[in-house]
Amino acid sequence: METQIVITKKRKEKLRGDDGSQIVSVRMKREMVNKIDQIALETNRSRNELINLFVEHALGKIQIVED
Fold first, then answer.
1. Cβ-contact 39, 50 below 8 angstroms
2. Do residues 57 and 5 lie in contact, with contact meaning Cβ atoms separated by under 8 Å?
3. Could you say which of 20, 33, 41, 45 would form a disulfide bridge with 49 (CB–CB 3.0 to 4.6 Å)?
4. Could you tell me where the DSSP H helices lie in the chain?
């Protein structure tokens, strides 16, 4: 069974500041961006925050094997 990512709704607030982040550009299919945007609306989280959550989750599940 696949592990799901549970995302809690967040209060709307704007925090700014240096958090050690780096800007990265990624190409995604429009359908994927639309799904992320819908989750963002439902959870009051930014697209950026969700993408970071998704990538962090995926990085914990990576297994590298030889060809």
1. yes
2. yes
3. 45
4. 30-43, 47-59
pLDDT confidence bin for 59, thresholds 50/70/90: very high
Q: Which two tokens stand for residue 1?
A: 């069974």
Amino acid type, 59: L
Q: Where do we find the tokens 């704007």?
A: 14
- Cα–Cα distance between 40 and 29 in angstroms, integer? 17
Do 36 and 50 contact (CB within 8 A), yes or no?
yes
**pLDDT, tens digit (0-9, with 9 covering 90-100), for 2-34:** 788 887 887 766 666 667 888 899 999 999 999
